[in-house]
Specification:
By secondary structure, the protein is an alpha/beta fold. A hairpin with a 6-residue loop joins strand 7 and strand 8. The structure holds 5-amino-5-deoxy-1-O-phosphono-D-mannitol (M6R).
């Protein structure tokens, strides 16, 4: 997730200060590097570097770029580390075309090879840089800038919002989108584009939405939209945005957490896009290792538990999951040069995780990591890493990072399984196909279940404690449901493997005690029904997250949240966790807390 802003202003105006101000409003979308380009006649000037906006501004004075047309970008790195060369804008060989991009271009390697063989010289390790070079290539074949851009974008696979500016047409900005967001702003003879309304809200409240598969041409004559496929013109009336600047950043959601819960369909698609070659590198190291440990904290630890189970089931790998702060006591003595440590951390800066990794490195272990922040300390300590591609997570309670971590870990387990031949190729292919169904299933929950879950939250408001129970791969889901609920609502919550609950926890049950069961229709179904009956018989108020049409559990429960379709067991945590994220969110709001900034917690825990 990156932030983009572009503007075409009246002649004689200066775009740069406006771009700077817009990037400030967009910084929440990414902040590991920043860049601006402006066009002044036949002069294209770029200023960019790694670091946050104000650091880069202090170094280069972003505001003194000349000209009324320009584009800015604040980056959340996906391809290529956050260093100067990889910062946007990226330019063609002759620095006549500059491009910024938000998203992932999946087939960039093929295009890059093709262009390199034609003599194009690349300066970055980004996927984005193929765009200016391909446009340049089409221009040399005699196409107009607009046609070259359209043809280029039509060759891209993946998710993108792309904005291009060029000395070829110095008063024009071209932009296009597929999956990644981009909206147009209509001023008084001035035109803007941005990743969201926040980008241009102080400049205009008139906006035009760009749909998937569309491009737009912005110039002093107006904003023209056309279909990428066939250049057919599209007529669309502007809408008026009534949001205040703060809710524009949250895209109309009341809190970042709610926005991030809703982003999960997209963040999962992005997580699933990572090239297979990274998984192959991981798999090779895991298969060669004599021991494997997974280290993480909090939510990332719960994702690690799912990952460990998947590695066992799909690949016969025994990966021991250790809470990072306990690693030196619990596991360090067992670590040697042939060990592999898989560290999972959204921020890549959690001190306990870093300490575990440093200790293991000192003993010669190979460090693999799953992380969401390129350039983080964990990335630098890792032998190889996989980027979750979830985009910045601002809410302190981790939501979209959890689901994208699990998606990455399931793909990893299936890759190791495939290479080891533990599971049939058919089974693995099926599992991977099921993973791709998850974003739509999550979207359905978000579209249809919110009211129901809010009501359940209201009914839980008076509870002095709440319990979460699951079995198998959904023990970690229950643990995650509990963590979300206690960190946001401050209600003491308990989570257990459902079967273990009768060995102690059941003593707490009295009339009306809320017990939430994560109960998909998988191989644990029969046994979890037994656990539900045990709780019910003692007066528990049973709330079950079940597969649609599961009458058996529905009849035993006081409330159910139904999940649309049947899924393979290993995939269920990705979907079944969403109602629990929403439950925690609404309970926090009902109690008058701020779910984005729960008390005593920090987004990144950088102390031991
Ligand atoms: O950035 P990390 O993934 O390393 O963070 C780990 C935990 O601090 C984090 O998951 C924490 O538990 C969250 N607040 C949970 O919502």
């Amino acid at each position: 997730m990156c932030g983009i802003f572009g503007c075409v202003l009246h002649d004689g105006s200066q775009a740069a200060p406006l771009i700077h101000a817009a990037l400030k409003r967009l910084e929440y979308r990414g902040y590991d590097s920043v860049g601006e380009v402006t066009i002044d006649g036949d002069k294209l000037t770029v200023k960019k570097d790694s670091g946050r906006l104000e650091e880069v501004h202090a170094k280069y004075d972003l505001d003194d770029l000349p000209g009324p047309v320009g584009v800015g970008h604040t980056r959340w790195a996906t391809h290529g580390r956050p260093v100067y060369e990889n910062s946007h804008p990226l330019v063609d060989c002759k620095s006549r075309i500059a491009v910024v991009h938000n998203g992932i271009i999946q087939n960039y390697l093929d295009i890059k090879r093709e262009l390199e063989s034609k003599g194009h010289h690349f300066q970055s390790r980004t996927d984005t840089e193929v765009v200016p070079h391909l446009v340049e290539d089409y221009l040399t074949q005699g196409m107009s800038l607009e046609e070259a851009f359209r043809k280029t974008v039509n060759r891209l696979e993946g998710a993108y919002a792309i904005v291009l500016t060029s000395t070829e047409q110095p008063k024009t900005i071209l932009c296009a989108r597929q999956e990644s967001p981009l909206v147009l702003g209509i001023g008084e003879g001035e035109y803007y584009c941005g990743s969201d309304f926040a980008a241009f809200l102080p400049l205009t409240r008139k906006a035009v939405l760009l749909d998937e598969g569309e491009m737009a041409v912005l110039n002093p004559n107006g904003a023209r939209i056309l279909k990428l496929k066939n250049a057919a013109p599209v007529k669309r009336d502007p809408i008026t945005i009534t949001w205040d600047p703060e809710s524009a950043k949250k895209q109309g959601f009341k809190h970042f957490m709610l926005k991030e819960i809703h982003e999960q369909a997209q963040s999962l698609r992005d997580a699933l896009r990572t090239e297979q070659l990274y998984y192959d590198q991981f798999a090779k190291k895991i298969i060669e290792a004599d021991k494997m440990f997974i280290v993480a904290c909090g939510t990332s630890y719960h994702a690690g538990l799912v990952g460990s189970l998947a590695l066992a089931k799909l690949a016969g790998i025994n990966a021991r999951v250790v809470v990072a702060s306990e690693f030196s006591e619990e596991a360090l003595d067992l670590v040697g040069p042939k060990s592999v440590i898989l560290a999972i951390s959204q921020s890549g800066e959690t001190m306990d995780t870093l300490n575990a990794v440093r200790d293991a490195r000192a003993k010669g272990a190979t460090i693999l990591s799953v992380l969401n922040v390129l350039g983080s300390t964990l990335m630098r300590l890792s032998t190889v890493y996989i980027d979750q591609n979830a985009g910045p997570e601002i809410g302190v309670a981790s939501t979209k990072a959890f689901t994208s971590q699990i998606a990455v870990l399931l793909r990893l387990a299936s890759t190791v399984g495939r290479r080891k031949g533990e599971v049939s190729a058919k089974e693995i292919t099926e599992l991977e196909a099921e993973l791709h169904r998850v974003p739509a299933l999550i979207q359905t929950i978000l579209n249809t279940k919110i009211d129901e879950i809010r009501r359940i939250a209201e009914e839980c408001d008076a509870a002095s404690s709440i319990c979460f129970l699951g079995r198998g791969v959904n023990v970690p889901t229950a643990l995650e449901g509990r963590l979300k609920l206690l960190e946001l609502s401050y209600v003491p919550a308990i989570a257990y493997p459902a079967g273990e609950s009768k060995h102690g926890f059941i003593a707490l049950i009295e009339e009306g005690f809320p017990v939430i069961f994560v109960a998909p229709k998988d191989e644990t179904h029969k046994r979890i029904i037994g656990n539900i009956m045990e709780m019910k018989a003692r007066g528990a108020r049973v709330i079950s997250i079940i597969e649609e049409g599961d009458e058996e559990i529905r009849n035993l429960s006081d409330r159910v949240v139904e999940i649309g379709e049947s899924l393979p067991s290993l995939v269920t945590p990705l979907v079944y966790v969403v109602p629990m994220q929403l439950l925690a969110y609404y309970l926090s709001v009902i109690k008058g807390h701020d779910p984005d900034y729960p008390r005593n917690l920090a987004k990144s825990v950088t102390v031991e």
